[in-house]
Amino acid sequence: MSPARRFFGLDTPPGTLATITGSRLLRSPKTLAIFRLVVAIYVLASGLLAVSLAPTVYFRFLTNLSWMGIAAYFFVASFASFYALKHGPSAQAPKGLVWTVENLFSLSYCLSWVVSLIFWTLLVGVLATSSPMQFYIRVNAHALNFVFMQADLWLNNIPVPLFRVFVFTGTLFLYSGLTYLLKYAFDTPWPYPFFNALDIKDKPAPAVVGILIFTFIFTIVFVLAWAEARLRDSILNRRVAAAAVHAESDTEAAGTQAKETATGAPSIA
Fold first, then answer.
1. Is the torsion defined by CA of 114, 115, 119, 122 positive or negative?
2. pTM score
3. What is the pLDDT of residues 190-216, one digit of tens each?
4. Cα 36–42–45 angle (5° rounding)?
5. What CA–CA distance (Å, rounded) separates 255 from 232?
6. Cβ–Cβ < 8 Å for 148, 105
């Protein structure tokens, strides 16, 4: 295996049902399954509420697309969790389930970083003129998205290999391409004000520079998210190892005590 393949995580072992449904923090996999299902229902319900208030423009915004992506992730992940509870974590997962969960998770997790950072640094001023319902929907989609994905990150065992940066940036390019298409073909307003600076038709040179800058920023954001996932693995792996050593010590102590009780004399080890 070349160093480049190891660096980008191309040597990551294939995922399994146990990988996408297990937890190093929770004793009961059922807790994770219930958490995922409750979050899925809440995200979908609040998303449908937002759609009902602005049905013609809702899906033009990356925030809303990523919010529905989070709903999709949690529904599929909760299905995987309940499937593992019924058939056992070592069972063969339905075809495509592991791949879908892993990719939905990494994409939703990293998009939660982007959506939250853009809103709270560039767009937070809209809260000052929001109605109570708009305030709820905007804070909901730009804060709880991050909270939910952070919680699932630390509860699950799903890897986030570095090569998925290409899936992440590719998704953002796809969204941008569709935005340009809607603008130039149908004169649809820009979904975000900063797209004015990225208008390739009117300001090609500054737009290209802006796109390169945003691509760099999004790549850095992915690397930060990837680093957090690596930190999670490091911390929780040490926790699991320490718990195993502690359990082994307890087993040895119990065995020694049982031997002393049986012989009526202290055992010298």
1. positive
2. 0.88
3. 999 999 999 999 999 999 999 999 999
4. 135
5. 34
6. no
